[in-house]
Design goal:
Elements: H1 10-27, H2 31-35, H3 42-47, E1 56-60, H4 66-74, E2 79-84, H5 87-99, E3 106-110, H6 118-122, E4 127-133, H7 142-151, E5 153-164, H8 172-183, H9 193-204, E6 207-213, E7 218-224
Parallel strand pairs: 1-2, 1-4, 2-3, 4-5
Antiparallel strand pairs: 5-7, 6-7
Helix pairs in contact: 7-9
Length: 227
Protein backbone atom coordinates (compact mmCIF):
# COMPACT_ATOMS: atom_id res chain seq x y z
CA UNK A 1 0.00 0.00 0.00
CA UNK A 2 1.48 3.33 -0.99
CA UNK A 3 2.30 5.75 1.80
CA UNK A 4 2.63 8.70 -0.56
CA UNK A 5 -0.84 8.56 -2.07
CA UNK A 6 -2.75 11.78 -1.50
CA UNK A 7 -6.21 11.63 0.07
CA UNK A 8 -9.13 11.92 -2.31
CA UNK A 9 -10.43 15.45 -2.69
CA UNK A 10 -13.99 16.36 -1.68
CA UNK A 11 -14.73 16.89 -5.38
CA UNK A 12 -13.52 13.36 -6.20
CA UNK A 13 -15.67 11.86 -3.45
CA UNK A 14 -18.69 13.85 -4.65
CA UNK A 15 -18.11 12.64 -8.20
CA UNK A 16 -17.94 9.02 -7.04
CA UNK A 17 -21.19 9.44 -5.12
CA UNK A 18 -22.82 10.87 -8.25
CA UNK A 19 -21.45 7.99 -10.31
CA UNK A 20 -22.87 5.40 -7.92
CA UNK A 21 -26.22 7.16 -7.81
CA UNK A 22 -26.26 7.14 -11.61
CA UNK A 23 -25.39 3.46 -11.83
CA UNK A 24 -27.98 2.38 -9.27
CA UNK A 25 -30.79 4.88 -9.78
CA UNK A 26 -32.70 2.20 -11.70
CA UNK A 27 -30.57 -0.86 -10.96
CA UNK A 28 -31.46 -0.70 -7.27
CA UNK A 29 -35.00 -1.88 -8.08
CA UNK A 30 -33.75 -5.20 -9.49
CA UNK A 31 -30.38 -5.38 -7.73
CA UNK A 32 -31.12 -8.15 -5.24
CA UNK A 33 -33.00 -10.23 -7.78
CA UNK A 34 -30.09 -10.24 -10.24
CA UNK A 35 -27.08 -10.18 -7.93
CA UNK A 36 -28.01 -13.34 -6.04
CA UNK A 37 -26.72 -15.31 -9.01
CA UNK A 38 -23.17 -13.98 -8.90
CA UNK A 39 -22.46 -12.29 -5.57
CA UNK A 40 -21.52 -15.60 -4.02
CA UNK A 41 -20.42 -16.12 -0.44
CA UNK A 42 -22.45 -13.33 1.17
CA UNK A 43 -24.56 -15.65 3.30
CA UNK A 44 -21.45 -17.54 4.39
CA UNK A 45 -19.96 -14.27 5.58
CA UNK A 46 -23.11 -13.43 7.56
CA UNK A 47 -23.24 -16.84 9.21
CA UNK A 48 -19.61 -16.44 10.25
CA UNK A 49 -20.03 -13.06 11.96
CA UNK A 50 -20.73 -14.75 15.30
CA UNK A 51 -21.98 -11.48 16.79
CA UNK A 52 -21.91 -11.41 20.60
CA UNK A 53 -25.18 -10.89 22.47
CA UNK A 54 -25.91 -7.18 22.56
CA UNK A 55 -23.14 -6.55 20.04
CA UNK A 56 -22.80 -3.92 17.35
CA UNK A 57 -22.29 -4.49 13.63
CA UNK A 58 -21.34 -2.04 10.88
CA UNK A 59 -21.69 -2.78 7.16
CA UNK A 60 -19.65 -0.61 4.82
CA UNK A 61 -21.29 -0.31 1.42
CA UNK A 62 -24.66 -1.54 2.67
CA UNK A 63 -26.40 -0.99 -0.66
CA UNK A 64 -30.02 -2.12 -0.74
CA UNK A 65 -29.89 -3.38 2.85
CA UNK A 66 -30.13 -7.03 1.81
CA UNK A 67 -27.19 -8.19 3.92
CA UNK A 68 -27.94 -6.08 6.95
CA UNK A 69 -31.52 -7.35 7.05
CA UNK A 70 -30.41 -10.99 6.89
CA UNK A 71 -27.80 -10.36 9.57
CA UNK A 72 -30.32 -8.59 11.80
CA UNK A 73 -32.64 -11.59 11.55
CA UNK A 74 -29.82 -13.99 12.39
CA UNK A 75 -28.55 -11.95 15.35
CA UNK A 76 -31.73 -10.52 16.95
CA UNK A 77 -29.95 -9.13 20.03
CA UNK A 78 -27.46 -7.00 18.08
CA UNK A 79 -27.57 -3.42 16.80
CA UNK A 80 -26.76 -2.74 13.16
CA UNK A 81 -25.37 0.23 11.29
CA UNK A 82 -25.04 0.75 7.56
CA UNK A 83 -22.95 3.19 5.52
CA UNK A 84 -23.18 3.81 1.79
CA UNK A 85 -22.07 6.58 -0.53
CA UNK A 86 -25.17 6.29 -2.74
CA UNK A 87 -28.30 8.06 -1.56
CA UNK A 88 -30.27 6.09 -4.14
CA UNK A 89 -29.23 2.78 -2.57
CA UNK A 90 -29.92 4.11 0.92
CA UNK A 91 -33.44 5.03 -0.12
CA UNK A 92 -34.08 1.42 -1.15
CA UNK A 93 -32.41 0.11 2.01
CA UNK A 94 -34.47 2.37 4.26
CA UNK A 95 -37.70 1.20 2.65
CA UNK A 96 -36.71 -2.46 3.00
CA UNK A 97 -35.68 -2.07 6.63
CA UNK A 98 -38.95 -0.33 7.49
CA UNK A 99 -40.90 -3.07 5.73
CA UNK A 100 -39.09 -5.69 7.83
CA UNK A 101 -39.85 -3.83 11.06
CA UNK A 102 -36.17 -3.29 11.85
CA UNK A 103 -36.07 0.49 12.12
CA UNK A 104 -35.39 0.34 15.87
CA UNK A 105 -32.33 -1.89 15.38
CA UNK A 106 -30.79 -0.61 12.14
CA UNK A 107 -29.32 2.84 11.55
CA UNK A 108 -28.28 3.97 8.07
CA UNK A 109 -26.33 6.99 6.91
CA UNK A 110 -24.65 8.34 3.80
CA UNK A 111 -20.88 8.50 3.85
CA UNK A 112 -17.55 7.59 2.31
CA UNK A 113 -16.23 4.18 3.37
CA UNK A 114 -12.63 5.29 2.83
CA UNK A 115 -12.85 8.02 5.48
CA UNK A 116 -15.60 8.15 8.06
CA UNK A 117 -16.02 9.20 11.69
CA UNK A 118 -18.00 6.50 13.50
CA UNK A 119 -18.56 8.75 16.52
CA UNK A 120 -19.92 11.62 14.43
CA UNK A 121 -22.07 9.41 12.19
CA UNK A 122 -23.34 6.82 14.63
CA UNK A 123 -22.40 8.03 18.10
CA UNK A 124 -20.12 5.01 18.63
CA UNK A 125 -16.41 4.65 19.27
CA UNK A 126 -16.26 1.18 17.73
CA UNK A 127 -18.09 -1.93 16.57
CA UNK A 128 -17.83 -5.60 17.50
CA UNK A 129 -18.07 -6.57 13.85
CA UNK A 130 -17.49 -4.69 10.60
CA UNK A 131 -18.20 -6.34 7.28
CA UNK A 132 -17.76 -5.42 3.63
CA UNK A 133 -19.54 -7.47 1.00
CA UNK A 134 -18.64 -6.97 -2.67
CA UNK A 135 -17.92 -3.28 -2.16
CA UNK A 136 -14.12 -3.05 -2.19
CA UNK A 137 -14.20 -3.92 -5.89
CA UNK A 138 -16.21 -0.75 -6.48
CA UNK A 139 -14.44 1.73 -4.21
CA UNK A 140 -11.62 3.94 -5.54
CA UNK A 141 -8.87 3.90 -2.93
CA UNK A 142 -10.34 0.71 -1.45
CA UNK A 143 -7.21 0.13 0.63
CA UNK A 144 -8.26 3.10 2.78
CA UNK A 145 -11.55 1.35 3.45
CA UNK A 146 -9.69 -1.61 4.94
CA UNK A 147 -7.70 0.70 7.22
CA UNK A 148 -10.79 2.69 8.21
CA UNK A 149 -12.73 -0.51 8.96
CA UNK A 150 -9.98 -1.83 11.23
CA UNK A 151 -9.78 1.50 13.02
CA UNK A 152 -13.53 1.29 13.68
CA UNK A 153 -13.30 -2.06 15.48
CA UNK A 154 -13.79 -2.41 19.21
CA UNK A 155 -11.21 -4.44 21.17
CA UNK A 156 -11.54 -8.10 20.18
CA UNK A 157 -13.67 -7.06 17.20
CA UNK A 158 -13.32 -8.52 13.72
CA UNK A 159 -13.48 -7.37 10.11
CA UNK A 160 -15.17 -9.71 7.60
CA UNK A 161 -14.73 -9.29 3.84
CA UNK A 162 -16.11 -11.14 0.84
CA UNK A 163 -15.46 -10.01 -2.71
CA UNK A 164 -14.51 -11.20 -6.15
CA UNK A 165 -11.35 -13.26 -6.28
CA UNK A 166 -9.15 -13.76 -9.31
CA UNK A 167 -11.05 -16.82 -10.59
CA UNK A 168 -7.72 -18.63 -10.43
CA UNK A 169 -9.28 -22.08 -10.66
CA UNK A 170 -11.72 -21.26 -13.45
CA UNK A 171 -11.27 -21.22 -17.25
CA UNK A 172 -9.73 -18.12 -18.79
CA UNK A 173 -12.77 -17.53 -20.98
CA UNK A 174 -14.96 -17.38 -17.89
CA UNK A 175 -12.67 -14.85 -16.25
CA UNK A 176 -12.67 -12.66 -19.37
CA UNK A 177 -16.45 -12.85 -19.65
CA UNK A 178 -16.95 -11.99 -15.99
CA UNK A 179 -14.49 -9.08 -16.08
CA UNK A 180 -16.20 -7.63 -19.14
CA UNK A 181 -19.60 -7.83 -17.47
CA UNK A 182 -18.40 -6.32 -14.19
CA UNK A 183 -16.71 -3.43 -15.97
CA UNK A 184 -20.13 -2.22 -17.12
CA UNK A 185 -20.94 -1.54 -13.47
CA UNK A 186 -17.54 0.00 -12.59
CA UNK A 187 -16.51 -3.13 -10.71
CA UNK A 188 -12.89 -4.38 -10.76
CA UNK A 189 -11.77 -7.44 -8.75
CA UNK A 190 -8.80 -6.42 -6.60
CA UNK A 191 -5.79 -8.54 -7.45
CA UNK A 192 -3.84 -7.34 -4.42
CA UNK A 193 -6.69 -7.84 -1.94
CA UNK A 194 -5.08 -10.70 -0.04
CA UNK A 195 -1.71 -8.96 0.06
CA UNK A 196 -3.23 -5.75 1.46
CA UNK A 197 -5.27 -7.61 4.07
CA UNK A 198 -2.21 -9.58 5.21
CA UNK A 199 -0.20 -6.37 5.42
CA UNK A 200 -2.89 -4.61 7.46
CA UNK A 201 -3.16 -7.62 9.77
CA UNK A 202 0.58 -7.49 10.48
CA UNK A 203 0.50 -3.72 10.94
CA UNK A 204 -2.26 -3.90 13.53
CA UNK A 205 -1.14 -7.14 15.18
CA UNK A 206 -4.41 -8.82 14.21
CA UNK A 207 -5.13 -12.43 13.30
CA UNK A 208 -5.85 -13.25 9.67
CA UNK A 209 -7.92 -15.97 8.03
CA UNK A 210 -8.39 -16.28 4.30
CA UNK A 211 -10.10 -18.78 2.05
CA UNK A 212 -11.01 -19.05 -1.61
CA UNK A 213 -14.55 -19.98 -2.61
CA UNK A 214 -15.81 -21.66 -5.76
CA UNK A 215 -12.38 -22.17 -7.33
CA UNK A 216 -11.34 -18.60 -6.69
CA UNK A 217 -14.53 -16.97 -7.89
CA UNK A 218 -14.76 -15.25 -4.52
CA UNK A 219 -12.38 -14.57 -1.65
CA UNK A 220 -13.44 -14.56 2.00
CA UNK A 221 -11.28 -13.05 4.74
CA UNK A 222 -11.52 -12.36 8.47
CA UNK A 223 -9.19 -10.06 10.39
CA UNK A 224 -9.48 -10.32 14.16
CA UNK A 225 -8.31 -7.45 16.30
CA UNK A 226 -6.54 -8.42 19.52
CA UNK A 227 -7.18 -6.51 22.73
Amino acid sequence: MSTTELPASPEFKANHAELMDGVYRWQRHIYDLTRKYYLLGRDRLISGLDVPVGGSVLELGCGTGRNIILAARRYPDARFYGLDISTEMLETASTAIAREGLVDRVTLTQGDATAFDAKALFGRNGFDRVFVSYSLSMIPGWEKTVSAALAALSPNGSLHIVDFGQQEGLPRWFRALLRGWLKKFHVAPRESLREVLESESRRTGASFRFRTLYRGYAWLAVIGRQR
